[in-house]
Amino acid sequence: MDAYYGAPSAASADVSALGPVLAVVSHPVADFAAWRVVYDEAQPVRDAAGVTGAEVFVDAANPSMVVIIHRFPSIEAAQGFFQNPDLAAAMKRGGVTAPPTILLASAA
């Protein structure tokens, strides 16, 4: 899981001029109910990163696969969030069992 703890890299285009950022994250968890408690407790981490919206989904075909959508005001805010060691610690406590897949998309 250590590979996760760096921020997703930005595309070679100048993304700093783009609008709000949507982060779509998916990863498996050992126990959704236990993970959700830790996710909810980590609200201060999301607040500090400037998360402007958050939604949690469970894969209909695989209930141990979680899909999270977070909205950020900028690519820098999103990257800072994914580099935060408090996020890494929360994921570990929550029982994330593999590195997540992260897609960052900017409003154009």
What is the gist of this entry?
The protein has 108 residues and is an alpha+beta fold. The protein has helices at 32-41, 43-49, 75-83, 85-94; strands at 21-28, 53-59, 62-72, 101-106.
Indicate how many domains the architecture comprises: 1
Shape: globular
- Rg from C-alpha positions? 13 Å
Largest sheet: 4 strands, antiparallel
CATH fold group: Alpha-Beta Plaits
Distance between the ends: 32 Å
Describe what this molecule looks like in 3D.
This protein is α+β, with helices and mostly antiparallel strands. It has a single domain, classed as Alpha-Beta Plaits (2-Layer Sandwich), CATH 3.30.70.100. It is built from 4 helices and 4 strands. Strand 2 and strand 3 form a beta hairpin. The longest helix is centred in the middle third of the chain and has 10 residues, at 32-41.
List the helices and strands and how they pair.
Elements: E1 21-28, H1 32-41, H2 43-49, E2 53-59, E3 62-72, H3 75-83, H4 85-94, E4 101-106
Antiparallel strand pairs: 1-3, 1-4, 2-3
Helix pairs in contact: 1-4, 2-3
Features:
108 residues; Alpha-Beta Plaits
